[in-house]
Every structure is written in C-alpha cells, then in structure tokens.
Amino acid sequence: MWIITLFKGQRIQMFEYDTKKEAMFNFSKISGCKVLTQVIYYNDPVINYK
C-alpha cells in the first residue's frame, strides 16, 4: 500500500494507492508539501523473514 500525505495550509489530506506506479503518477501531479510513504505490514508476503 502507498500513501500520499499532503500538507496544505492547516489541512492534511491522505490518499491511498495499491501500486507504486499509481502513487508515483499522482504524486507528480499534486502540488504542495507532500510525502510518499510505502506501508508494509508484518504479515505482508513481500517481506522475506529468512
């Protein structure tokens, strides 16, 4: 999961995306102070515990 957090004045908005490609596309279109974050859960199959 990918989250874009947008800080605009006194407001904070968050947008959630399933893929990095989708998040990066929208990240480039949003203006303002923004942060792109990847959320990884401890039971996410992407993580290799070996």
Secondary-structure map with pairings?
Blueprint: E1 2-8, E2 11-17, H1 20-29, E3 33-38
Antiparallel strand pairs: 1-2, 1-3
- Average predicted local confidence, pLDDT: 88
**Residues in β-strands, percent:** 35-45%
Instruction: Supply the number of structural domains.
Output: 1
Provide the helix percentage. Answer: 10-25%
Judged by helices, strands and strand pairing, the structural class is: alpha+beta
Number of strands: 3
Distance between the termini: 22 Å
Q: Please state the CA-atom Rg, rounded to the nearest Å.
A: 13 Å
One letter per element, helices H and strands E, the order comes to EEHE
Shape from CA axes?
A: elongated
User: Order of strands across the biggest sheet?
Assistant: 2-1-3
Contiguous uncertain segments of 5+ residues: none
| Count of helical regions | 1
Largest sheet: 3 strands, antiparallel
How would you sum up this structure, described in words?
The longest helix has 10 residues, at 20-29. The protein has one helix spanning 20-29; strands at 2-8, 11-17, 33-38. The radius of gyration is 13 Å and the shape is elongated. The two termini are 22 Å apart. It has 50 residues and is an alpha+beta fold. It has one domain (2-38). It contains 1 helix and 3 strands, in the order ββαβ. The mean pLDDT is 88. Strands 2-1-3 form a 3-stranded antiparallel β-sheet. Helices cover 20% and strands 40% of the residues.
